[in-house]
Amino acid sequence: MHNIKAVIFDLDGVLVDTAKYHYLAWKRLAQELNIQFSLQDNERLKGVSRMRSLDIILEIGNITLDSDTKIQLAQKKNIWYVDYISNLTPKDILPGVIGFLESLKVDSIKIALGSASKNSMLILDKLNLTNYFDAIIDGTKVSKAKPDPEVFLKGAEALKVLPSECIVFEDAEAGVEAAINAGMYCIGIGSKNILKMAHLVLAGFSDMTFDKLKL
């Protein structure tokens, strides 16, 4: 892999397992609406915006609501989610992440976050990860949800690198598609069965260094 100058990370499911808290909050909301919501349904929510996630759940339940009601429900879900993640500590960082971030710093590789989460600063602060990032592009800075490439293109722009000089780490189908749409090399974190479009799929960051990516 030649001429890579930057790495862009998704947050949920890549650096920290906050996905379970999203699931718990969405399931709680679905139960209030008498909608059956499974872990399989939850796969469709990974990497997409909060409002789109709510729309998917309402589609599952065949329910139509006005925009004001939907905003209130999304806010309720977020309050529950923030309550769940308020107890995060550095112990919740996924295995190998710190070592990999350190190896990127040693190689002078720029690091950005590219996440749909509007709670990314809270999460990074709780994990003591904020200082590793040269740029943070999250749900407060983008208007288009993945698979639109906006979040990753803005990350490259903030780092002053070309899209072709970036590697993206993603755990969601929509995120992998967004990275490819941005013209970036994408490494999936998770299952090859789900992340079929990724250029490479890894189980996680255990024993991972930047040197191992120099293909």
Note the topology.
Elements: E1 6-9, H1 19-32, H2 39-42, H3 50-60, H4 67-85, H5 97-106, E2 110-114, H6 120-127, E3 135-137, H7 150-159, E4 166-170, H8 173-181, E5 185-189, E6 200-202
Parallel strand pairs: 1-2, 1-4, 2-3, 4-5, 5-6
Helix pairs in contact: 1-4, 3-4
Question: Can you offer a commentary on this structure?
Answer:
Helix 8 (173-181) links the parallel strand 4 (166-170) and strand 5 (185-189). The protein folds into 2 domains: 6-17 and 90-213, HAD superfamily/HAD-like (Rossmann fold, 3-Layer(aba) Sandwich), CATH 3.40.50.1000; 19-85, Putative phosphatase, domain 2 (DNA polymerase, domain 1, Orthogonal Bundle). Helix 1 (19-32) crosses helix 4 and helix 3 crosses helix 4. It is globular and about 50 Å long. The model has no long low-confidence stretch (mean pLDDT 94). It has 8 helices and 6 strands, in the order E-H-H-H-H-H-E-H-E-H-E-H-E-E. It has helices at residues 19-32, 39-42, 50-60, 67-85, 97-106, 120-127, 150-159, 173-181; strands at residues 6-9, 110-114, 135-137, 166-170, 185-189, 200-202. Strands 3-2-1-4-5-6 form a 6-stranded parallel β-sheet, sandwiched between helices. The longest helix is centred in the middle third of the chain and has 19 residues, at 67-85. It is 40% helix and 12% strand. With 215 residues, it is of the alpha/beta class.
